[in-house]
Amino acid sequence: MEINPIFYESHMHTPLCKHATGMPEEYAKVAYRRGLKGIIVTCHNPMKNGWSSNVRMNLDQLDEYVTIVEYARKTWSDKIDVRLGLESDYVPDIEPWLEELHQIAEFHHILGSVHPHLQYYKDLYFNGDILAFQRGYFEHLAMAAETKLFDTLSHPDLVKSVDPLEWNVGRIAEDICNCLDRVAAAGVAMELNTSGLHKSVPEMNPGRFMLEEMHKRNIPVVVGADAHHPFRVADDFEEALDMLSDIGYTKVSIFLNRERYDLEINSVRSSLRPT
């Protein structure tokens, strides 16, 4: 019996970010093969001050971004629902720029990201003390949630990949839990990002400890592969869904029109086609 597609890839990129390959229609093709209902393209936002311009679109490319996503939407409209989203960097005091940026187009899902590995972030916040840097990261993640500018916080323990030898989740557990208390109070979802399996700390973002603490606080979870190449669409989704179930989650979330929809994990799991 054929099962109707119900799930979306909620985190993926385009060549405009300068470190991804494949146009949105190529990602849509893989999504169709994987049994997804749709994709939400979430390329890295332009930064007004030019920060990390080598890994994101320029402001004058925003119209092109909207255009290539719209082309994919029209091309695949009879098979895959293609939607426009955005992954926006958060640092303190950037709120006015993001408020303006998020009104430029009709975004269906906005990810909020703190990218501690980028040079501009290190220049601002790293003083040689890695533990203080890790603590500052989780403070910024909580602040991002409290702005209410984002639907989902992406790869929410990414800081562990900055200096893997200095990552000790027990040492930073109190900061993680304090951060999650604030995220839960803000009502923002968090991502389980499968691309962490391919990073220097080879586990999903977040790891199991943080995911268990998210479950204790009833924080909704969005699963995303953070695909920078078409073949990564829905990468390791089955493993992610199984881990969520094992921890105690029964539902997983997607965002459409910036509204959250919760789906039964068992139904999502059975709707996926193998790679």
CATH class: Alpha Beta
**What is the CATH-assigned architecture?**
Alpha-Beta Barrel
Relative helix content: 25-40%
Radius of gyration: 18 Å
The largest sheet, given as strand count, sense and whether it forms a barrel, is: 5 strands, parallel
Side-by-side strand order of the widest sheet: 4-5-6-7-8
Number of domains: 1
Overall mean confidence score, pLDDT: 97
Shape: globular
Unreliably modeled segments: none
**Which range does the strand content fall in?**
5-15%
Instruction: Output the structural class.
Output: alpha/beta
Kindly report how far apart the N and C termini lie. Answer: 19 Å
- The CATH topology turns out to be TIM Barrel
Order of helices and strands: EHEHEEHEHHEHEHEHEEH
- Identify the CATH homologous superfamily: Metal-dependent hydrolases
How many helices does DSSP assign? 9
What is the number of strand segments? 10
What would your notes on this structure say?
- It is a single chain.
- With 275 residues, the chain is an alpha/beta fold.
- The protein has one domain: TIM Barrel.
- The protein has nine helices and ten strands.
- The protein has helices at 24-33, 62-75, 95-101, 119-125, 130-147, 169-186, 208-216, 237-247, 265-271; strands at residues 8-9, 38-41, 81-84, 86-89, 110-113, 152-153, 189-193, 221-224, 251-256, 259-264.
- A five-stranded parallel beta sheet has the order 4-5-6-7-8, with helices on one face. The chain has a three-stranded parallel beta sheet with strand order 1-2-3.
- The longest helix is centred in the middle third of the chain and has 18 residues, at 130-147.
- The radius of gyration is 18 Å and the shape is globular.
- It starts with 7 loop residues before the first strand and ends with a helix.
